[in-house]
Structures are given as structure tokens and as C-alpha cells.
């Protein structure tokens, strides 16, 4: 099951927001949402390439987005310093 574009944006945004809250990184809600969407796409590509299948549908996209967002937020925090 493929996640649609609008659902992907919403789920990626939620993943970025959750990652920002968990990691206590304050770039602002908008930036965390953008990082969440980019992180979801990045993690999806990495997981597919590695052969890792978390789950299908919106739940898998949320988990992948969360992992990707955490990675990107960590890297963004390093660059920001």
C-alpha cells in the first residue's frame, strides 16, 4: 500500500514534530516538520536499499520518518553549532 502525497506530508510532519520533541531540539515547528518530511523520504530510501521492511502503509512511513527525522535533526544540530 502506497501512502499518498498529502498523507505523506502529514505523516512526515508528525514524525518530524515527534522527533523534535523527543530529542529536545528547537528549530521551530515548521523546520521540524520539513525535516520530518525529508527524513521520511531519506529513511525510506535507506531502508529499501538495506532490505529492511518496518511496516506497510502509514505506520511504516511514520516509523521511517521518525528515524530519518532523528538522524537529520542530530546532523542539523551539529551543523548549527
From TrEMBL:
Phylogenetic lineage: Bacteria, Pseudomonadati, Pseudomonadota, Alphaproteobacteria, Hyphomicrobiales
Highest rank taxon of the organism: Bacteria
Ligase as UniProt keyword: no
Record keyword Transmembrane present: yes
Family: Belongs to the UPF0410 family.
One Pfam family in the UniProt entry: Transgly_assoc
Keywords in alphabetical order: Cell membrane, Membrane, Transmembrane, Transmembrane helix
Protein name in the entry: Putative membrane protein YeaQ/YmgE (Transglycosylase-associated protein family)
Any GO CC annotation of this UniProt entry: plasma membrane
Transmembrane segments: 6-22, 29-47, 59-79
Predominant location category: membrane
InterPro entries recorded: Transgly_assoc (IPR007341)
Compartments in which it is found: Cell membrane
Mode of membrane association: Multi-pass membrane protein
Amino acid at each position: 500500500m502506497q501512502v499518498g502525497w498529502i498523507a505523506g506530508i502529514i505523516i512526515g510532519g508528525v514524525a518530524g514534530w515527534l522527533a523534535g520533541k523527543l530529542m529536545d531540539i528547537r528549530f521551530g515547528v515548521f523546520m521540524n516538520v520539513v525535516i520530518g518530511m525529508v527524513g521520511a523520504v531519506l529513511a525510506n530510501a535507506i531502508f529499501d536499499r538495506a532490505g529492511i521492511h518496518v511496516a506497510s502503509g502509514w505506520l511504516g512511513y511514520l516509523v521511517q520518518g521518525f528515524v530519518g527525522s532523528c538522524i537529520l535533526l542530530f546532523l542539523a544540530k551539529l551543523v548549527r553549532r
